[in-house]
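Box 3.1 A note on notation
Throughout this textbook, protein chains are presented in two layers. The first layer is the amino acid sequence; the second is a token string describing backbone geometry. Keep the layers aligned when reading.
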Amino acid sequence: MERLKIDTEWEGQVPLVSVAGEVDMANAGDLVRAVEEAARDAPQGVVLVLSGVEFMDSSGLGALAGLHQALDQQQRKLVLATPSVAVHRILDLTGTLGRFLIAPDTAAAAEMVTGE
């Protein structure tokens, strides 16, 4: 398994933060910092592309929940695009699946952020 790779691209004014590999206690803070950095220039919110995540532990889940709460308090959105089986599993098992906006692809996710 790949440790963690994070890349950010922009679709208009919406950052697409793509995550691949393992998200765990050792690197969940890196994920938080990457999303927070992207959010600085994103007035409406952030898309987190999770199709490449092979493993996520409770630290990763905590990072997602914290980011969701922080953006929500600023009246911005965090949309999870194409979550992998590993991400879907932890969200489902912990009963948090319904707390997040989830999109089947990045285009739909960007539209959910902008409302267009």
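The radius of gyration is 13 Å. The CA atoms of residues 79 and 112 lie 7 Å apart.
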